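Worked problem 6 (solution included).
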Amino acid sequence: MMSKMTLHNNIKKYKEGIIMFAEKKFLNGDIYSMAKEGEIFEAFAIRDGKIVAVGTNEEIMKIEADETIDLKYKTVLPGFIDTHQHVLSYTEGLQAVNLRECKSYEEVRKKLEERAKITPEGKWIKGTSFNHEQWETPVLPTRKDLDDITTKHPILISRYCMHVHVANSLALKKGGISKDFIPTAENSVEMDKKGEPTGVLWENSVTPILNAIPNPLPTFEDKKEAVRKVCEDMSSYGITGVTPIQGKFCDAIENIGIYQDLDKEGRLPVRVYVSFDEFPPFGMKSGFGNEMVKYGFYKIYSDGSLGSRAAKLFEPYSDMPETTGVLNYSQVQITEMVREAYNKDLQIAIHAIGDKGLDIALKAIEEVYYTDPKPNQRFRIIHVMVVNKDLIERMKKLPLVLDIQPKFVSSNVRWSEERLGKERAKLAYPWRTLLDEGFIITGSSDCPVEPYNPFLGIYGIVTRKDLEGYPEQGWYAEQRVTVYEAVEMYTKNAAYASFEEDLKGTISEGKLADFVVLDRDPFKIDSDELKDVKVEKTFLGGKEVFSAQ
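Solution. The predicted structure is:
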């Protein structure tokens, strides 16, 4: 690899008009550096996996190179970085019954009946990604509904958010969940009037059932091959970096060794920042690894999801006034988790969707950080979907990075106001407000919650419409962001979140040559077209890892 001094000298010679050497030079492009708004180059050159020069065609033509690539005036952006996925969980879910497109429980039932016909008695049937809010009758099914499908197979279906699940009677029995079951998170098992479980389970109350289900990818090699295929598919959407996150209580397991093996074998087409909801062994600290595979942050789950009404709110849900949501831990517990991670020099990320869930997360960080402030802290708050003015003021005083999921607006636009009421909805998914307050925001999919195509997220956060274009003017349109701000979230902001802003995230001299070539310019098209942008080529470290041709 080229040293920083060698790189500096090369760039100096290039600027002085002295010919230097590169492996590849790319000419005739509309190259958005993303280092600052409006900075566009025509050409750049790479060597040893890094960008050694950017500039005009005339300037880059002076550089000798093994290969010259004509970009044919296509748009080039830095590679996209998805800061929140559950990669291994997604691969396992691909083996289950996909319920994402079902528009009614009747469609769900038919799909599960079809799987039951070809599944031996006693074997598990697992369904994923249902969204009852898009059903004709948006009501969660119960164990009795699933029992009507089959009593000879244990069935578990999970909502796309992975925070609420429904089990049939046989699945409840195998998980040991009865009227005497005591969940660790209060009110996370729904009971009927007789005190019997209805089959609806929130948060980690589903863990005993998940533990009883055989893994669909039983061997390490099975898992590795499945992850490889998914990572290759990510490349087709321009993703060059991803943060796989383990969430054990919602059956989202990760294994850093899978990515290390794929890297060693030369079969890993994305850079990973693998993160866990348990402490690492051997005193490992965040950032340990290489440019391809790094150990990331320690994650804590404060509350649940908004769609399942498990996000913890200060006031009751507008459409279900008997509940305010679910907390996974007490304030004391979360504070101690933050303190231990902080003392271990781990980056800390906290899932917080509801305003009360966020309040508890902030109190924990405030207690620990203000007691012992350390330099260059980047606490990460994940989701941040419901805020208020007081929470924003407290957040501004802390060194926070906000990891959001832009497509959530598109997916949730038809029911969020019903959940929250008009007043709270004004500061729901409040991305314009938070940007204006100076926060660094990153973009992600939370896959398998949402598809990992970044342009679906960019479309969602720029238009605040669903994929059918509703509502026409955008939902609470004053919270829309610009295309540049949206792309920043998936590039340089995402690199900053993992302390890698000097390594990647922009097309700049000295940065990794991770970039994408697009079929159209997202900065020049109508915003409703953003969801249709396609990636033509993806490069990682200057090597082509995807081509649409």
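Discussion: Confidence is low (pLDDT under 50) at residues 1-7.
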